[in-house]
Amino acid sequence: MTRPAVLVARAAFPDIVDRLRAHFEVEDNPADRIFTKAELSAKLAGKAGAFITGSERIDAEVLDANPQLRAVCNMAVGYNNIDVDACNARGVLATNTPDVLTETTADFGFALMMATARRIAEGEHFLRRGEWTKWAYDMFAGSDVHGATLGILGMGRIGQAVAKRGALGFGMKVIYHNRSRLAPELEAPIGARYVSKEALLRESDHLVIVVPYSPASHHAIAAAELALMKPTATLTNIARGGVVDDAALAAALRERRIAAAGLDVFEGEPKVHPDLLSVPNVVLTPHIASATVATRRAMASLAVDNLIAALTGAVPPTPVNPQVLPLKR
Ligand code: GLV
To answer: For a 10 Å CB count at each end of the chain, is N or C smaller?
Structure first.
């Protein structure tokens, strides 16, 4: 019996990718070239499944060009790169990597929020430029994190993990807005208060965005929302580019309508809006919130587990659209 063929669309931990070779003919991409859409479609020819990342967009066109494709396994918790409706319509399984990155991503979100509030990147750039010649009473004076009001937009697993750090570690008051309210037993230990989006924007000292990207969350934070925030507030985005209108944010930062921002994700990344590069009061990181060795290995491993299960008739651990199971072989 010929073995199914799979594509590993990006470089990943070779020892983890190697586990696929026991089951499948594997075409990998150790040079880690980013495929254009046409290249991706061509590479998927004859493949039953694919290990992909957020860089690979799986849409109706790609699926129609590859009707033999049965499973696309994302090495990411977010899956806005996959048109899930198109997958459903064609019986294609999509999987993601929830849970394994929750605490690591929350650590990073908290660190980015703290770096933003305490102006750590601005201070470092100043020092590296050789401009530090004396102490000054207001030099890089930022705002406190402990005891402040932490606002969370998107209270899923990662949002709750950020909130826990704030409430239990830093004595922060936690408010949040989400599509649905948390169960009381989840709210109570962190004293989290469900508020309207408007109240969240008005009351937060430090707003952390953790909402998944979808057409509904596109530009959830744009000029009108930024205008509701305190001039002393910070905004941290560890969710997805596109949830925040980067041009509007850059304008608000330049005009000090909010104090500072911390951004790990960007509209059109890896390109960054030039206005964000020219304002000083923003901490910029290259989409690394889940990037610890242990967590990235766990994510790769889960994506591999999903792909193996999907194509060998087992139950994939973390399907996005389980309704397509069992897959037609
Ligand atoms: C990273 O952004 C992820 O969705 O895992």
So the answer is: N
